[in-house]
Amino acid sequence: MASDASAATTRITPAALLSRKGGEPIVCLTAYTYPIARLLDPHVDLLLVGDSVAMVLHGHKTTLGATMDMMISHGQAVMRGAARACVVVDMPAGSYEDSIENALASAQRIVRETGCDAVKLEGGVAIAAQIAAIVAAGIPVMGHIGLLPQSVEKEGGYKIKGRSDANIAALHADARAVEAAGAFSVVIEGTVEPVAADISAMLAIPTIGIGASPRCDGQILVIDDAIGLTVDRVPKFVKEYALLRDIVSDAAESYAKDVRARAFPGPEHLFSPSKDKA
Q1: How far is the CA of 58 from the CAs of 120, 153, 231, 250, in angstroms?
Q2: Which residues are catalytic?
Q3: Which tens digit of pLDDT belongs to each residue from 51-65?
Q4: Domain boundaries, the chain
Q5: Burial classification of residue 82, based on how many CB atoms lie within 10 Å of its CB (0-12 exposed, 13-18 middle, 19 or more buried)
Q6: pTM for this model (two decimals)
Q7: Which of the listed CATH numbers 3.40.630.70, 3.20.20.60, 3.40.50.300, 3.10.450.50 matches domain 14-243?
């Protein structure tokens, strides 16, 4: 499926991002809709259609509420709005873990129906074979290690990684497995800073931090967190660059007052018998 964005603009490729290891930091944000993709596209290198959409836009308590149909629908919307940023779509929980065959079929469906540039999977050693098979089929893969939101129920909550020798060793093994399987980059989430920094220095592929380290090769945030639209708890690792929830609330309050006072719509908002336009 081709993007509706301008064909005249050259899109940033996964290969181009791979070549930036150790260079200019890679700027990443999530996007789930056409207008947000249009607004973010000039400023970022990568847009992630994250399974966080299940929580951010659909009100689920975890990312486990994301479905293939949901990810594809939002992926299509973002592709229509993104002309230059590399677009990566999350593979939802249940679409890749059980077998290589299922993982490959799921990845192929996502790329075929959205036209995205790459897919993202959570895990390391346990899903290295799936990553390798998807890459071998010609689909670029972004990895994801550290805190894994899709494993929240299995782990009994969101637990920061890298606080024990055993866990550090497991993180290193996961990072090496993702790289060896052929991923072009890897997200490191919710990991103690020195451990995330060591992993970034160890790998030859770019690392994208979220609650990790400034020494990662790039950073990503959920867009609603970054612009202050999050209506529930804001994670510790988030910096709010705007407070849009206040603006939205104030605008709704002003609108409600105008309607109740019959101050809206005013004469300038109404159509006359002459041929004026909407």
Answers
A1: 20, 19, 13, 23
A2: 189
A3: 999 999 999 999 999
A4: 14-243
A5: buried
A6: 0.94
A7: 3.20.20.60
